[in-house]
Amino acid sequence: MVGNITAGGTGKTPVVIGLVTALQNLGLTVAVISRGYGGSSQGVLRVYADSDPAVVGDEALLVARRTGAIVCVGRDRAAAAALAADTKPDVIISDDGLQHYGLARDLEIVTMDAQEGFGNGHRLPVGPLREPLARLGNIDFLLARGGQDPLSATRYEAVALRRLGGEERRPVDNPGLGPKVHALAAIARPGRFFTALRGLGFDPVEHPLPDHQSPDAVHLSALQSLPLIVTEKDAVKLAADCHLDAWVLEMGVVFPDGFIAELCRRAELEVRSS
Q: Are 144 and 23 in the same domain?
């Protein structure tokens, strides 16, 4: 179970992708369940690489495409877990749902942003907390984005720029796009994406959108003047033939030393390769 106790984005889905990849590299078969937030589906269904993000949700589709893992979505997470279990995976990871107590879990991983912390320490609507801070005493792992504690500090690193709808990938340190670019982000904290681009030497024209929102044709037509860089979550909602010089910033997660090994030990996972 990967979740958080605060409202807003704390990097859950990148952590899920990182976990899936790490476990797959150890020879394990992994399934992921998600609510499918932003999708229109009312039931439980399997997500494939060519699924419609408007139906299954952008984050679930991103996980399916990046990892090739079994991904099932449904508002009833227990039903989604049952569908995933039918495929006989070694591990089922829930993307979000920490507060969905009808869903059994063996391990709980909480993600947080080390800079923003837990706000004023109060619960919604006065503060950002979904649950009281005492809840942290019952979890198995805390992963702090940008933190300093070696046991929890988790880094998010830019890996490459990939052309939207294609296989071409360019290094982030010299992609040949020029400094001035359009930057589109429909995520919980778009400023984080724009800051990352500036750290890579870009001078982005910022286009923030509400989390999960898809840009319309009018918005896209205004982005023709410069190369466009988008988040991976937004890329799954953009057609490959949108006629833009569009690039996707691929990100990777670096976990604390020994985290994956300890996770496998606690979950009693039988690792098949290393």
A: yes
Are 130 and 123 a contacting pair, CB within 8 Å?
yes
Cα dist. 151→25, 117, 154, 260 in Å?
Answer: 22, 16, 9, 12
In a domain, 81, yes or no: yes
How buried is residue 56: exposed, middle or buried, by Cβ count under 10 Å (0-12/13-18/19+)?
buried
Other C-beta atoms within 10 Å of 21: how many? Answer: 16
What is the distance between the alpha carbons of residues 241 and 234, in angstroms, rounded to a whole number? 15
| DSSP string of 54-95, one letter each residue | HHH-HHHHHHHHHH--EEEE-SSHHHHHHHHHTT--SEEEEE
How many C-beta atoms surround the C-beta of residue 212 within 10 A?
Answer: 18
What are 65-77's pLDDT values in tens digits? 999 999 999 999 9
Please indicate, yes or no, whether the overall pTM of this predicted structure exceeds 0.85. Answer: yes
106 and 207 belong to one structural domain? no
| Residue 75 · residue 42 · CB < 8 Å | yes
Domain residues for the domain of 72 are 2-152+256-267
Is the domain of 226 the same as that of 260? no
Neighbouring residues of 203: CB distance < 8 A, sequence distance ≥ 6: 179, 180, 181
pLDDT tens figures, 144-182 = 999 999 999 999 999 999 999 888 999 998 899 999 999
Helix 12-25 to helix 58-67 angle, to the nearest 10 degrees?
20
Task: Give the residue with greater pLDDT, 258 vs 166.
Answer: 258
The predicted structure's pLDDT at residue 92: 98
